[in-house]
Amino acid sequence: MTQSDLPTAAEKPSAGRNRLVLLVYTAAIFVSALLLFSVQPLFTKMVLPRLGGSPAVWSVAMVFFQSLLLAGYVYAHLLMRINSRAIPIAVHLALLITAFITLPLAISASFGDPPTSGYALWLLGLFVASIGLPFFALAANNPLLQAWFVRTGHPDGTDPYFLYASSNIGSFLALLSYPLVLEPVFSLRTQNLIWTAGYGLLILLIAACGLLLWRAPARSPATLAAESDAPPPSFALRARWVFLAAVPSGLLIAVTAHISTDVAAAPLLWVLPLSLYLLTWVLVFQQRPWLPHKWVLWAQPAAIAGVIVLLAVGGEQNLLLTLGGHQLCFFVIAMACHGELARTRPAAKYLTGFYVALSFGGMIGGLFAGLIAPNVFSWVAEYPILIVLAALCRPPTNERLPWLGRLAWPLVVVVALALIVLSQTKGETFDWLQEHRVYVAGTVAVVGMLLAILLDTARLKLAAIAALALALVRVYPADDGRVDTVRSFFGVHKIVTTPSGQYHVLLHGTTIHGAERFQNNDGTRVEGRPEPISYYYKDGGIGQAVAAIRARKGAPLRAAAIGLGSGTLACVGLPGEDWKFFEIDQSMVDTARDPKYFTYVSKCQPDLKPVIGDARLTFAREPDGVYDLIVVDAYSSDAIPIHLATQEAMKIYKDKLAPQGAVLMHVSNRHLELASVVVGIADANGMKSWVYNEDSGRDSEYIFATNVVVSAREEADVGQLASSDKWEETEPTANQRVWTDDYCNVLGAVYRRLRDGE
Predict the structure, then answer these.
(1) First-to-last CA distance in the chain?
(2) How many CB atoms lie within 10 A of CB 231?
(3) Contact of 665 with 640, CB cutoff 8 Å
């Protein structure tokens, strides 16, 4: 900067101009954040009907967003290294206008159907080709506008990080407003147009920011000297920033996958932990933080202990515990990590480099939890690993009462190691420990964390105790018998062999998806054609419906089944019938075919060749009017792929039915009431529905109560079900909106389940 660039007294910024600068820059950053975080659920919902309802889709989407965020931050960092005001303004406005030309958002026409392998990479490519440019331009705005704000000479420019809080307030509001306002009120097309209009408004605001920067007086020599004297952050500090950002970013994906596995693969449940994640950024970067950082550091060990206890308990029978407990603990842990980032933030001169480190850490955490872990671990190991790493995010401390720590910590470690050794023995002691796994792991976790709080212990000791407690959760599993795990992009499946070896049981998440009896009660091996059990026994809802449609036709059925599971439906079909299966997960096909796990397929349909891929796409390619029965049983754990339970999906099923065919949908669910949803989408397609809801007291010996809906064009199409007192012809619920590809109401389904007390 030359002497002529220095301001005269007349050129010094006025109070009025300072207020204008603050208002315009805050508005631009706020609107940019609104757009940045509303596009995530918006576009994810646009692609869900093509991509399946797995929580893994959301994980890959998060990896994409975090990677593009890093790219945007690097772009902003490089742009601000140019010693010119005009060039960064012109380049960024040109980028925004180019991105605006590509709107409204649309799925790239160059991508066909998802592949049967390499699903994650294909999905990343789809996101890049479809929304990569507008998202990249948005991603750069936060650090770029803050850097511009510093150069305007505003009095608050020496510490502009409060604008980061404003950005995250916009992000937080965007995520909350989407499921509560935009999704239930506007169609997907209208949402897209609103978002496009917002993008146009943002370009005007950023142009105004650029004009204010262009017309701003040069900064004073004192300010320039103060900036030049600020020491650059060390490599160790930069590495710590990356680590502090990576851990909560990875935890965000791990927690989201944990809670969405057993409820629904819907944007609503993805929004909850992401909103809390953003709220932590808002709170820690306030000019006057609402929660003192030292309070959060005191609470963090308790939150770590809380996660360990929740993992030991399971929480699958209590929705509020699963949703609330894990997210509360996640919020405290993320607050501690992000609070450390706020405490160690650099001078404004190094602002863009700081944001690059944050986004790089966020991307690493996302890659680990979203892409690497599912391909490395056969079980969900990333959640406990990240909990242990969270303990290392604490700052260095000087322990209180070191003599007490020298006595207490070795005792806790010895007890925990002894319990792990005992897990490898057999007998009454091991059986008691396994039966009381919650108390075993929980006590070690709680005692260890209480000591950590009281003694202000070092982070390495805290991490070690957390690791030991989590190891106890692992070595004393909740499942009885031998457990094999199979993991794919779509989740973790467990095949449990009961202690006696009598049953093999398939679980996804915490929900049983099938079981087979391998031994009779007298211990002899079951021979011949296996008998369907679990939800598929002959006297249950599914068995009755299949028998009724078969009797109505009076001839072998031609049936389609969406979802293979353990392959039980292969034995529900009779010899001579044509049953075609549609399955998205190849690992499920491999498991069902392997006779060491299940024999339904090998003994009943050994030549089975299921169609691999998302059934919303693959089944739509089937010829119209050929199936006597379509069975939809594709739920993962208690989560539901919503795109298979919409008005548009039911139209596809109806089109594929033979003239007197019927659709059978299995809607048993612990957390959501779905029968009325199916009745509604069937009625919207001119079909009648009959509901079978068995008394839950029926459960015994792997024979489970079922909730089933059969839909058909006419009463005669369902045969004897229409006159059965166990099946109730059901009309759509008044004032209950029909689920479509544009609309779903998961909260309403949760409320109805809680209201009915089932």
Answers:
(1) 73
(2) 9
(3) no
Measured between alpha carbons, how far is 109 from 226 in angstroms, rounded to an integer? 53
Highest mean pLDDT among 20-24, 212-216, 463-467, 546-550: 546-550
3-state secondary structure 107-129: CCCCCCCCCCCCHHHHHHHHHHH
Q: Is the peptide bond before 115 cis (omega within 30 degrees of 0)?
A: no
From the list 697, 686, 696, 693, the residue with the least C-alpha distance to 732 is 686
**How far lies 741's CA from each of 45, 50, 363, 657, 693, in Å?**
8, 11, 30, 21, 27
In order of 9, 138, 319, 504, the CA distances from 261 in angstroms are 63, 31, 12, 22
Rg of the chain's alpha carbons, rounded to an integer? 29
- The residue with greater pLDDT, 564 or 54, is 564
Q: What average pLDDT is seen over the chain?
A: 80
Give the DSSP H or E segment for 58: helix 55-79
CB 467 within 8 A of CB 566: no
Does position 638 have pLDDT exceeding 60, yes or no?
A: no
Q: How confident is the model at residue 260 (pLDDT cuts 50, 70, 90)?
A: low
Integer Cα distance of 581 and 115 in angstroms: 18
Contact 107, 130 (CB under 8 A): yes
95 vs 512, more confident: 95
For 362-420, the DSSP string reads: HHHHHHIIIIIHHHH-SS--HHHHHHHHHHTTSPP---SSHHHHHHHHHHHHHHHHHHH
Amino acid making up residue 73: Y
Measure the CA–CA gap between 722 and 733, rounded to whole angstroms. Answer: 20
Q: Where are the alpha helices (DSSP H) in 530-599?
A: 541-553, 569-572, 586-593
Question: What does the pLDDT average to over 592-606?
Answer: 91
Helix (H, G, I), strand (E, B) or coil at 537: coil
Q: 611-612 and 627-632: which strand pairing? A: unpaired
Q: What's the rounded Cα separation, in Å, for the pair 87 and 68?
A: 22
> Which residue matches tokens 């969406």?
562
Contact 709, 540 (CB under 8 A): no
Gap between the Cα atoms of 87 and 576, Å rounded: 74
Which among 463, 470, 475 has a CA at the least distance from the CA of 442? 470
Interatomic CA distance for residues 181 and 198, integer angstroms: 16
740 bridge partner residues: 743
Sheet of 728-730: strands edge to edge?
611-612, 578-583, 558-562, 627-632, 657-666, 707-712, 688-693, 728-730
Q: Alpha-carbon distance 472 to 482, whole Å? A: 17
Mean pLDDT of the region 571-580:
91
Alpha carbons 368 and 104: distance in angstroms, whole number: 32
Average pLDDT over residues 173-179: 73
SS (H, E, C) 600-613: HHHHHCCCCCCEEC
CB 213 within 8 A of CB 152: yes
- Average pLDDT of 660-689? 91
Place of tokens 């040069």: 218
Residue range 278-329, pLDDT digits in tens: 788 878 877 676 778 888 988 888 898 888 878 777 655 555 676 788 889 9
CA–CA gap between residue 146 and residue 351 (Å, rounded): 8
| pLDDT higher than threshold 90 for residue 560 | yes
Q: Which two tokens stand for residue 711?
A: 């839909």
Cα–Cα distance measured from residue 360 to residue 352, given in angstroms and rounded to the nearest whole number: 12
Per this entry, what is the length of the chain?
Answer: 758
Helix, strand, coil percent content, the chain, rounded in steps of 5: 60, 10, 30
Q: Return the bridge partners of 497, or none.
A: 482, 504
Query: What count of Cα atoms within 13 Å lies in the side-chain half-sphere of residue 473?
Result: 26
- Strand order in 503-508's β-sheet? 482-488, 491-497, 503-508, 511-517
Question: Are 487 and 378 contacting, i.e. CB atoms less than 8 angstroms apart?
Answer: yes
Percent of the chain with pLDDT strictly greater than 90: 26
